Amino acid sequence: MDLGKVGTVVDWQALIKLVQWFYSDELPGPPSGCLWDNMDDQEKLFNLQPYVELYWLAEFWILENIQEACFNVIMSCLDSSWRLSIRIIKMAYNLSLWKLVDIAANLMAPSYRQLRDSGELEEFDDALVHLIYSASIQLN
């Protein structure tokens, strides 16, 4: 993959977080507490998306510490909403981040029937729907 593709996959917000990591050895976190709790799912996704993109970039460039830090941020936020898991699983699937896909599928598993009946899964790839279905079977 050439570096030109990085700009199409990774937003500037993710790159800013990467530079902050290089200078401070710390990954700035998304809003938390009441700020996070009072955001709608779209705002949460906007704040979490750079961490998913940076996770992909860290995996691509083998930056294990950044990858682990991004993973921890994403996991701490995914528990707040299964709707957020839907958006994150799509993003992770498109970036081939299989560890995130698997975890998001497991978080969505309890809601599989509701998601299926509401039509939320219709826009998903068949393999992704099967993964969520399999996670729901294992849960039961």
Automatic annotation (TrEMBL):
The record's listing under InterPro entries reads: At1g04390-like (IPR044953), SKP1/BTB/POZ_sf (IPR011333)
Q: Could you tell me which pathway this protein works in?
A: Protein modification; protein ubiquitination
Determine the domain of life of the protein's source: Eukaryota
UniProt protein name: BTB/POZ domain-containing protein
Q: Name its species.
A: Vigna mungo (Black gram)
